[in-house]
Write a structure and sequence with these properties.
9 helices; six-stranded antiparallel sheet; alpha+beta
Length: 244
């Protein structure tokens, strides 16, 4: 394993992060104990502060778990993360994992669709939509925060009470006769904005997964547009491809 290069422009803790990440992914197994901060400091000729920053980054990425008084261990990310590919219904997916889902409705209001929202929903600019802002939690731990937009013309009788007390998809199907057929998602790695970071209990600027979702009914019409930010240490994306 190569040592850090003092001549490189990349910060030393980033270089150590890369070295340790490669070691974790290629040479270690879940549950393995990493060298102590003192040992890493001596091995790579770095300050304890630099080593601590690298370990902090590994922990934020869900690659290691730090146990007070015991050390730093390789995480079993296969079992600690939620598969976004299965997360069509957050509530159902959390229950499947044995977790208790919870949704906090932060706001629910009517507003005029901006260019991004109107384009996503196939509406004219300024059309009235419902805007639902929610924080999703599992076992009281924040997982993702999202903004959902629905055409008012289709779901005019939605109320704050309804969206607080029922699954949104259950409401769309049971009260409005919508058969939810498919959902199309785009996932990108972004940095957390201050407001989202505060809700997710992570530092501002931390990496998050930005998920844009379009939901189609049986007639092929887009009935929902949601943009969410999810904690990278709590989610993974697992896809299986097959031929023919």
């Amino acid at each position: 394993m190569s040592l850090v290069d003092l001549t490189r422009k990349q910060p030393l803790y980033d270089q150590l992060f890369d070295i340790l990440r490669d070691k974790i992914q290629n040479d270690m197994a879940p549950g393995d104990l990493l060298p102590s901060e003192r040992q890493l400091s001596q091995q790579y000729g770095l300050s304890r502060t630099t080593v601590r920053l690298a370990l902090d980054s590994l922990e934020k990425m869900g690659l290691v778990t730090r146990r007070h008084g015991k050390g730093t261990y390789v995480s079993d990310a296969r079992h600690s993360e939620t598969d976004l590919a299965l997360c069509y219904s957050f509530t159902e997916e959390m229950r499947r994992l044995g977790k208790t889902p919870k949704t906090q409705v932060l706001s629910f209001s009517q507003e005029e669709a901006n260019k991004s929202v109107s384009s996503a929903l196939g509406l004219h600019l300024g059309a009235t939509v419902w805007h639902l802002h929610r924080l999703r939690l599992a076992d009281d731990e924040p997982m993702l925060v999202g903004h959902t937009y629905l055409p008012l013309e289709m779901f005019g009788s939605l109320t704050h009470e309804k969206v607080c007390n029922h699954s949104l998809y259950d409401l769309l199907e049971s009260e409005f006769g919508q058969t939810i057929k498919t959902a199309e998602e785009e996932v990108r790695v972004m940095t957390a904005r201050a407001a989202d970071a505060e809700l997710l209990l992570i530092p501002e600027g931390s990496p998050v997964l930005e998920i844009s979702r379009l939901t189609y009914n049986a007639a092929g019409r887009i009935i929902e547009f949601t943009r969410s930010s999810a904690r990278v240490d709590k989610f993974k994306y697992h896809v299986i491809h097959s031929r023919g």
